[in-house]
Design a protein that fits this description.
heterodimer, A: 259 residues, mainly alpha, 11 helices, 2 strands, B: 303 residues, alpha/beta, Rossmann fold, Alpha-Beta Plaits, 6-stranded mixed sheet, 10 helices, 14 strands, 29% strand
Amino acid sequence: MSNNRNISVALWTLTTKEIRRFLRIWIQTLVPPAVTMSLYFVIFGSLIGPRIGTMDGFDYIQFMIPGLIMMSVITNSYANVVSSFYSVKFQRSIEELLISPMPNWTILLGFVLGGVCRGCLIGFIVFGVSLLFYPDFTVVNPLLTLTVLFLTSILFSLMGFINAVFADSFDDISVIPTFVLTPLIYLGGVFYSINILPDFWRAVSMANPMLYVVNTFRAGMLGVSDVSIGFALGMILGFIGVLTGSCLYLLEKGTGIRQ
Amino acid sequence: MAYALEISDLKKTYPGGTQALKGISFAVEEGDFYALLGPNGAGKSSTIGIIGSLVTKTEGKVKIFGIDVDEDLALAKTMLGVVSQEINFSGFEKVIDIVVTQAGFYGIPKSIALPKVEKMLKRLSLWDKRNDQARTLSGGYKRRVMIAKALIHEPKLLILDEPTAGVDIELRREMWTFLKEINQNGTTIILTTHYLEEAEQLCRNIGIIDGGLIVENTSMRKLLGRLNVQGFVFDLESPLDKAPEIEGFPLKLEDPLTLVVAVNKERSINALFAELTSLGIKVNSMRNESNRLEELFIEMVKK
């Protein structure tokens, strides 16, 4: 498939198939983040938040909003790709793609765009929910906010893809989100500023990659961050580059998909 | 001579050391209907997997219509359609979406694919089920979806890996008619099957693979010509007490109304009928004792 038009048709087909998939099961994919985040806003924002007071000069619920949006974006973009790609492996419909003349990069891009669409859509849904609890919220830097939203969805879609490539069972696709992603996200500044931590734990937190993602997004929405924005964006872009290369290498080698 | 498929010295060793293919070579002419037969584990599916790039080869060359898959895999793939042994589509999608999506993977836009899909689904009696979720279909209809998927980009070479496994007789015959038709329209077909009657009915040439090696590669006619003795079963009009004795034809009475005979290929069966008629024995119907290809196949893979 050397013709650019054919490749764009194939990419469009795979991407729309991926979008159709998560929209078809909207009750499993779109509703739960809205419900879960509503509970966070009720409990930590409206009930406990006023007792906590301010965080970095913002109402606690206002401080929490960017973190909770990022948490939803990360988990959903990751979950979309890992579950979709593992499912096509499991039910052997990966053969439809492997037999076709689609180049590997198109296959990767199709799945990643599916993850990005779900991640971004969830980001907007959670933001919409947050406005119900804090209607006065205004985004300080929309361009930075959207850029980080987009890059984060790409980054975690790529991670989900690698997880799916190596997964041999449904257990394998839940281990990383449960035991790695979730703890890192919770300790990555979603609910607090690392400025409130003792020096030692602040230094330890700086090694958590989620901190950079969450704080760059918070910088876009609120204008405050615990980390350097330039450095954080560079890290995100660097990781995207490395993970894209790794995914293409795995596809070329046929790891987990070709015998 | 133009070849649809050329395979040279193809080897496959799986991680763990199992050597599925030990260096097979064969070619399939353009327009042919070719049977690739072999017992379970002989290497048929590995061969098909390599051709369809679902399995990575260890060594050897594969050319599809003269295009080396190592040089231009994408172009070679546009000429190839594969119907895998296992169902390989999402059961949660509608039949029509599965086939339109497959066309899209080959760069065919939905607007162009839809009329082709309609024609294909109608031809395979799937049109009424186009909006059904694939998982609700019976096994036979799922097989038809597999065929529709493999043919939607109009490949010049179609490979079917046991397409009628688990399919009822009526549907199997329908599929035979359909496959004969697309072969007559110019599509080269390679078929693997465990139903040797199917291979005998459909295929002009045959390759037999056993233990990762090609043990036979010839025309069906020549292969069947090697059969020296054929067994026939006669259904008689009136019961007999014992089998008649006719020189050169060892007859055996299976039951009072069924006579079995082994006929050497040098003897004419007309002579046997003449003798039976002279003895006043009337034959209502006659059939082969077993499938002719089956007898040869068992002999070859036993060696």
